[in-house]
C-alpha cells in the first residue's frame, strides 16, 4: 500500500461516511434542535474515529453496514462532547473547526440539548430495525456506552476540570487523557473489530493498537497546542497553556513529548504486526497520520 | 388486588430498585463525578418510570433481572434530563425533590458532565455481560435511545424552550408534552413488556396505556403547578405560570384540565382491559396514582 492508495481509501471512505451521517442526523427535529445537531456534527472534523472504525472492520472482514453505523455513532459521541466542552461553564471556547462553537451559534440551552440528543442518537443509529444482528447491536452499544461514560470520556473530563492549575505527575496525566480521549479512540477500533470475526490474538492486538494510538493523539494535541496557531488548528491555540492546564508538554517538555509520540506510534505498529491479521496497512497509516498531523 | 397489596408491592419493588440502582451508580468515578451522579439519581423521586417497567414486565411474565436493569436505565435518563433542565441556561431552577439542584450543589460544569455520564450509564446498564439475552439488550437500547432523543424527550424540551411566552394550541401543546414526558413514560411500559413474551394485541394495548398515562402525567403536573405550593411539590411551584409557559391549565382552564386527566385515566384503563393480559392491576393502580397524586 503506498500513500496514494491510502489517500484514495480515506477520500472514498469519508465521502461515504458523510453521506450516511447526513442521512442519519435529522434536519427536521423540532424547534431548531435538528439544525443545531447538524451544525455540530456535519461537514467538519478530521473524522479520525470513523476512519478507525471502518479500517478496523475492513481488516477483520466485518459487516460494512454495521461499521458505517458504528462510525456515525462514535462521531456523534465525539461531536456532542465537543459541544458540551466548549460551553461557558466548561472551556468557554468560541471557535471550533474554524466556525463559531455551537452555543455561540444557537445559544447555550439549544447547544446543551443538541449534545444530549446527539448522545441518544448515537445509540439509536446502533440499533436499527435491520442490517445489524441484535447481538452485534448489543456489543456495539456496550462498547460505546462504556467509553463515553464515567469510566471513559466523561470521567476524563471531570479529571480535566479538577486539574486546572494543579501540577499532575505523568501517571495522573496519562490516566486523564486515556479516559478523556484515548478510550473513545480505542473503542472506535474495537467497534470496528466487533463487526467481524476476530481471533482473541487479533482482538488483543487491536486493543493495544487503539490504546497506543489514543495516547499518541493526545500527546500530539498537546504539542500542537503550543507549536501551531489558531488558524491552522481551527480552534483556539495556546488554550491549555493559558488555562494553566497540565499537558504532556508542560509535564515532560517539548522534546520528550515528541519522543513519546514517536514511541507510541512504534507501539501501535508493533501491536498490528503481532495481530496475525493479513492486512493492517490502513490502520498503520492512520497511526502515522495521527503522529504526523499539523492540526 | 386491594390498595394494601398494591402499596406493599410498591414498597417492595422500590426497596429492591433502590438497592440495585445504588450498586450501579459509581461512587468512585473520578474527581467528584460519581458523587454528583449519585446525588442526582439516588434517594429521591417518585420512581414512577421504574415502577412502570417492573409492573409491565411482571404482567407479561418477563425477565425480572432485565426489567430491573431497564428500570434503572430509564430512571437514569429521567434524572439526567432533570439535571440539565434545571441548569441556568435552561429553567434555572434551584430546588428539586426538596434539595438544591445538582448544579447548585456541584457547580454547572460538574452537573453537565454528571448528566452526560448518566445518559451513557443508562445504556451501559442495559448491556451487561450476562443476565440479558443480546437481542433483548438491543431492543431495550433501541426503545430507550428513541424515547430520549430528538424524536422524544430532547425534542420536547426544544419545543418547550421555543414556546416560552407564545400561545400554543392544544394540539401543539400535546405534541410537546408527548415528546417531553409522555414518550419516556410510554417507553418505560414498552421496555417492561419487551422483557417477556407479549402478543401483538398486548403490546399494542400496553403502548396505548403508556401513551394515555404519559399525557395524563403532564396534565396533572400542570394542574399541580398552579394548585400546590413548593413545599408539597419539592420543587418551585408556579414556575410555568411565572415563565409564561403554555400549560394545559393556561390553554384549557383548570376544570377542563381536570376532566382531561380523568378521561386519560379511563383511556389507560380501557387499554389494559383490551390487552388480553391476565393481571394488569398494578398498571391500573399506577394510572390511578398518576391522576390522584398531590405532588
TrEMBL record, chains A, B:
* InterPro entries per the UniProt record, alphabetical: Isoprenoid_synthase_dom_sf (IPR008949), Polyprenyl_synt (IPR000092), Polyprenyl_synt_CS (IPR033749), Prenyl_diphosphate_synthase (IPR053378)
Question: Which key words are in the record?
Answer: Isoprene biosynthesis, Magnesium, Metal-binding, Transferase
**A Gene Ontology molecular-function term?**
prenyltransferase activity
**Any GO BP:** terpenoid biosynthetic process
Concerning SUPFAM superfamilies, the annotation shows: Terpenoid synthases (SSF48576)
Task: Specify the domain of life of the species encoding this protein.
Answer: Bacteria
Short name of any one Pfam family annotated for the protein: polyprenyl_synt
- One cellular component term from this protein's GO annotations in UniProt: cytoplasm
The record ties this protein, via Gene3D superfamilies, to: Farnesyl Diphosphate Synthase
Cofactor(s) this protein cannot do without: Mg(2+)
Coiled-coil spans in chain = none
Q: So what family is this one in? A: Belongs to the FPP/GGPP synthase family.
The entry's protein name is Polyprenyl synthetase family protein
Q: What species does this protein belong to?
A: Pelomonas aquatica
Q: What is the lineage of its organism?
A: Bacteria, Pseudomonadati, Pseudomonadota, Betaproteobacteria, Burkholderiales
Amino acid at each position: 500500500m503506498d500513500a496514494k492508495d491510502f489517500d484514495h481509501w480515506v477520500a472514498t471512505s469519508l465521502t461515504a461516511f458523510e453521506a450516511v451521517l447526513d442521512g442519519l442526523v435529522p434536519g427536521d427535529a423540532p424547534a431548531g434542535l435538528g439544525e443545531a445537531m447538524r451544525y455540530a456534527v456535519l461537514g467538519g472534523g478530521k473524522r479520525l474515529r470513523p476512519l478507525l472504525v471502518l479500517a478496523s472492520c475492513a481488516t477483520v472482514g466485518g459487516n460494512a453496514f454495521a461499521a458505517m453505523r458504528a462510525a456515525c455513532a462514535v462521531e456523534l459521541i465525539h461531536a456532542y462532547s465537543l459541544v458540551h466542552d466548549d460551553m461557558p461553564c466548561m472551556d468557554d471556547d468560541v471557535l471550533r473547526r474554524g466556525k463559531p462553537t455551537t452555543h455561540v451559534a444557537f445559544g447555550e440551552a439549544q447547544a446543551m440539548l443538541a449534545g444530549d440528543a446527539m448522545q441518544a442518537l448515537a445509540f439509536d443509529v446502533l440499533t436499527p430495525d435491520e442490517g445489524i444482528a441484535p447481538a452485534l447491536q448489543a456489543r456495539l452499544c456496550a462498547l460505546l456506552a462504556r467509553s463515553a461514560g464515567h469510566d471513559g470520556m466523561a470521567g476524563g473530563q471531570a479529571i480535566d476540570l479538577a486539574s486546572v492549575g494543579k501540577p499532575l505527575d505523568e501517571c495522573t496525566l496519562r490516566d486523564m487523557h486515556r479516559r478523556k480521549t484515548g478510550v473513545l479512540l480505542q473503542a472506535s477500533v474495537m467497534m470496528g473489530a466487533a463487526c467481524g470475526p476476530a481471533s482473541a490474538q487479533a482482538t488483543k492486538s487491536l486493543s493495544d493498537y487503539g490504546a497506543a494510538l489514543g495516547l499518541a493523539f493526545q500527546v500530539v494535541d498537546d504539542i500542537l497546542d503550543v507549536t501551531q496557531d489558531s488558524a491552522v488548528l481551527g480552534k483556539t491555540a495556546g488554550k491549555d497553556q493559558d488555562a494553566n492546564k497540565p499537558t504532556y508538554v508542560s509535564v515532560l517538555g517539548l522534546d520528550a513529548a515528541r519522543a513519546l509520540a514517536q514511541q507510541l506510534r512504534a507501539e501501535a505498529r508493533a501491536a498490528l504486526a503481532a495481530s496475525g491479521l493479513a492486512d493492517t496497512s490502513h490502520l498503520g497509516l492512520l497511526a502515522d497520520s495521527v503522529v504526523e498531523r499539523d492540526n
